[in-house]
Protein 1
Amino acid sequence: MSEDRVAKENLRRRFQQNQEDCTITVLALLPTATENILDALSVERITQDLQQKKAERLGRNIGPLDGASLHPSSGPSSVVDEDGKSLASLQSEGYVHASQMAASGSGSENLAAAKPTKGKAQLWNDLKIKSITRAFTLLYTLSLLTLLTRIQLNLLGRRNYLSSVVSMASHSPQEPTISLENLDDDNAEQTYGNDFETNRRFLTFSWWLLHRGWRDMMEKVEVAVKAVYGPMNPREDVPLEKLSTLILEVRKRVEGATPEERRSHRWLPYLLPPQDQEGMVLRESGMLKAFSPSESASIPSPPSSLSPTIPASDSSQSTALRRLLDETADLIDSPTFTQILTLLLDTTFSHLTDHQIRTEAYKLPDPSSIHSVQEIPEIDSGLAKAKLATILAVMTRQAHAIGSGVPNRYAQAIEGVKELEAFAAVIYSSHFEFEALGGDSSGEVAKEAQRPQEGTVPTAEGKKEAGLGVVGTATDMFENVWGRITG
């Protein structure tokens, strides 16, 4: 009995350590994608151009009469003042450093050399679209990277754990406490992850999301943002409830507007390359700087797909890597992956809207800081309004917080999603033969992940739609799966 407790505690300890490793890995990889996204959507550069336009306009308006004659349709002074406040807000709140602003206005030669070619209206429109697209793309990238890393490290964690158990059992005359089923091949060392090079190459495939997948994600988000926010004026007052509705509309265009559309949406192209580009990923990431003719063998694919893919120096290593990639792809294409991703996105978008934008743009108290009904101020959040330009300033700053914040509040919010750990437990427990699994010889994690989960999807009728997530009994999944792991 004591041996059972020791074995279960060892399993639990390894599992928890694996989840901590996942968090550390995500935070280590995220800055790579963040740098690419910030460079592709440089809101700060547009802000400098707007500041330069304002400086040029002020320079021409030497006198009030001349200014009135040159700009008869410039609008009342309150509008011009609001425009200036919006720029000031972006500069003070949007990570436009003082040195950058000084450089943009340090002399007439600099102004002439970098004179913006777009008009003020076009610059404001570009800033609006890019600042929103950038923040949303980072939220999608963080959530996708989190799930991909959980899949990868839990697949390898499972293999390593089984390898250690098999090794110990082979030196013990007693029956192993946890019964294992070798479903892959007869080579226990290769099956259970004692191949460092295979593991290293497998983990390298996060390169695709960090260098390619994010761009496809950005393009899809940008199309949705243009459709939803395109007609809006930066000076427009936006009620908090309307902002939530607008954000939800963007998400529907990206993820799917109905449960059926969301279930059928494929996230795999953002996370893993096509088979004919797998070798390119390994070479670009430095795993295959050079290989001899003997390494030109392809990783074997299933009989139905024999296209050449990844060079490998060893057929057993090649087979192990192919198996890991195929299992990862099956997991990503499973309905549960989409369900968990939706929950992560609900959490991160909620943190952006209900915490950061709510407090910084609308000046409302953070709900998490209110501990009792007596502390709730008499403020109708539905009536609260903020200029769109002010909201853009908050999103501009939050893009940096999402991608490289220390501590990263968005990553911390994701860690609080229990279903994420349940999903990891499903992966980690696959290939374990328990009575609770009914002796199912398949033991494939993708089949476990594809089991439908109960829940409901909020609708637009009757209540405000807070997100696209599934609610209900899905929160019980972790307890059920963990019970299977520990008996």
Protein 2
Amino acid sequence: MTLKKMLSRRFQHKAFGHSIRSATLATEPHGVSFWSNTGRIDVELEETGSSQSFFIKVISGELGRNMMYGECESMRAIHALVPDFVPEPVAWDTYTSVPDTHFFLCEYREMMDEMPADPYPFTAALAALHQNSRPPPEMEGKFGFHITMYSGNLPQVVEWEASWETFFAKSMKLALELELKAKGPDPDFDVLVPILFEKVIPRLLRPLESEGRSVKPSLVHGDL
């Protein structure tokens, strides 16, 4: 089945369910991704006759399923706090006709390559995200997330930790383990990694949580 057919069929069947009826006007590949197929879907909403566009990612396998779930949940968390900062997520799910293929659907937004002439709206939204976000009440003051997140196709540490130093060290350790797994042993790592964990991280981060100081857990965007 072609990407175009997958985009069109699945979008009509499940993303809107039975609450919104629409006619698909166009589906086409859009954007570039190392790990998934990406596309744009243009529809006409039957109730109003207005047109609307959506962006979709499609990827196969259990890893792909987890990636789509993670992206949808994280974007929902960001969008709930700062709606203008990210596209509005619509749904993630699995194709009924291709059971091992999964998708994430969100609002379509035009992207630009150049820097904005006025950076204030962007930086203000970023500050609002960092200042206004907080963990769920049962995890108050802790760092983590409720499901596994991914950087590209690599899983990230999400287990809740009360210490930023501990959370950061665990995240760095996993990143280095994945690097060694992908590229093999490196003698420089044998020298530098112990120094990183025994000296560098404690010296830089421990003072932030010493003598009454603390670090506020905040939502962060993985691309920034």
